Amino acid sequence: MTRPAVLRSLQTIVPDTQLVQEDVRDVFAAQPDIGRLAKRIVSASFNGSGIDTRYTVLEELSFSAETESPQFFDRTAGLLLEPGTKARNEVYIREAGRLYVEAARRALDADSDITAADITHVITVSCTGFYSPGPDYEIVRALGLRDSTRRYHLGFMGCYASMPALRAASEICAGDPDAVVLVVSVELCTLHLRSSDDPDMIIATSLFADGAAAGIVTARTFDSDVPGLVLDRFHTALIPEGNKDMAWTIGDHGFEMVLSTAVPQLIGEHIHDALRPLYVGEPPLAEAFDGGSISEQITHWAIHPGGRSILDRVEEKLGLTEQQLVPARETLRQYGNMSSATVLFVLRKILEDASTHDGDRVTAVAFGPGLTAETALLTVVAPGRRAE
Length: 388
Description:
By secondary structure, the chain is an alpha+beta fold. The protein has a domain of about 150 residues: 3-Layer(aba) Sandwich (Peroxisomal Thiolase, Chain A, domain 1), CATH 3.40.47.10. It is built from twelve helices and 15 strands. Strands 7-6-8-9-1-10-15-14-13 form a nine-stranded mixed sheet, with helices on both faces. It has a two-stranded antiparallel sheet with strand order 2-3. The chain has a two-stranded antiparallel ribbon with strand order 4-5. Helix 1 runs antiparallel to helix 2, helix 3 packs parallel to helix 4 and helix 7 crosses helix 10.
């Protein structure tokens, strides 16, 4: 019998520069190129975001930074600048490469029994920049992995991309029981934030931030005693009515996000259809889901916090408790929306929570362009028990 793949050694990091949401709101509201209506939308979006702090690789966005030749923010004049896409991507290459390597190294260091020699595959994830040789190559060289390590990159998929990365890692392990897959997500969303009158872009500006996460997926057993999550099942669902309500394109002054106010409503209307196939393989869960009591069967919910209104709608439609949404809401409050890395931050909060016990079931959900909903069913493996 094939052993299930387990996500273990999950680690998260953010850049050093912290942004206080109220300060960022005031900067965007003070820009001279936006009208009175846009200023009101800025205030409403930032104030209702559910975010206290975010993090960025752009030190010049800090009010304490001294920058001789600013590219993104002229602190003296209080003006947001408009560097071209090339300039933004050059910052991505420099900063993302460092974060990829650091996150990957932390995941390896977190598991004393897994070494660089054990890694057989690397999967990297990002939608906020490009370069080649890419981060998969940098990780192999910096961590001393074997040259023969198989490398894959999932690019420009958006906020849900870490879910198919975990799914791909699980499928690799199903085909090769000896595989040890390093999965790393790095998103530098703040590189693409800029002043705008467009309500959709203003909403995106109020939410997105920078962050990185990494974990190891394997079906092998190791002596090290670390918490993990059995990757039981995955499902992909599409909400075609929302294909124009969430999108990610490349413009002359950075990548451009479309995030309409219709997204929470669309997710609420379709969340049941998106999740139902995930539980079909386990009749008790399927019955609980159709009977409206799934929150009693699934202890933990790793919902991608695309925004506070999305979490509100999912909580309402699924009948979840306030406690079950704490990991997602706290991730949003402390870090903002870090695109594909965010759901991994939520999963780590669940693993580290004192109320999490061996055998607890977890449902993870991430949303992205399309409108796409990626879902997963997982089981907690606490220290002291190995997945059978």
